[in-house]
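Bumping with the actual sequence this time:
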Amino acid sequence: RGRPWGAGKGPLTALSEHLPRVSELVAPDGTDGDAGLAAWLCVERAELLERHLDQIDAAREALQRGVTLLPGPGPVRAALVRHLYKHDRDAGLAEALSVESEREPDADRAARLSYASARIALDRIGSRADGIASLARADQKAVSGTPVQERIISELINQLEIDGDHARLVEVRIKRLGLLRSPGPVTYEYLRLADAYSRIGRADLAVDAATRALSQSPSNPAARDAVDHALQRLGRHDERTTIWLREANSEAPPLVRLRAYLRAAEIFHRNLNRKEQAVDSLRAAWLLAPGHGETCDLPAALPLYKRLLFAGELALDGRLRP
């Protein structure tokens, strides 16, 4: 009796050589054929080559032939992805996921495939250009407002910040702003947008972004400082004093008001050369200083207060004394 089929490598090798011939016979030729069957025969051949004949490269070639015959999402492409993942073919896996994402009709899954391709490129291959490009494609595919889109945008922003690509950061942050609703996150995003505008030389747009942040959180000191710095770059010092005097005359805690008066005095003195108005702001600050206000117990404010009050030429003006 002859040996049963499959015993030893001789018959298996013969089968591995026979399957591609059958696959080509049933493959579409323009008038007839079955692409699904032809592609699945490639998958069967790859399984045989990988598991029984230890021919990993040949198995991968068989699977690549299979996805050429049947390129859309499905079990044939899934078999290729599994093979590449199992055998640590990072570059091939990233490419396979990227190609599959382009053919995937479901937008959410397509975005996740592109995101997975990006993570492999960034974390395992070390190709920042390919990784960021895949993230950008994932962002374009993602369904608006989904957790997938939020994760993709967050990672894209992180990578662009690492590269210092502030022009693209502006675009992505504007897109993220459209997804946010709570004042806290909106304020933070406007502040980061203002910083990006400043870094590309658009101080005018930085003022607008910082002002929007301040309107979301009127008591946020970082937002107020951002507006002040942006206006300073444009030389719009009158507007700066308006901001600080408004804060100084608000219902904010005394320490906050004191610092606002001192900031206004500094701008009047150094940038506008308006000594009378600087004196008025310093006098108001004096009244809020420790020992001069009924509600003030602010030892932390004293060093800042003294630095402005006694170190500059305005401190010599006797009119500061109550």
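The tokens above came from a reply further down the thread. The CA atoms of residues 27 and 35 lie 5 Å apart.
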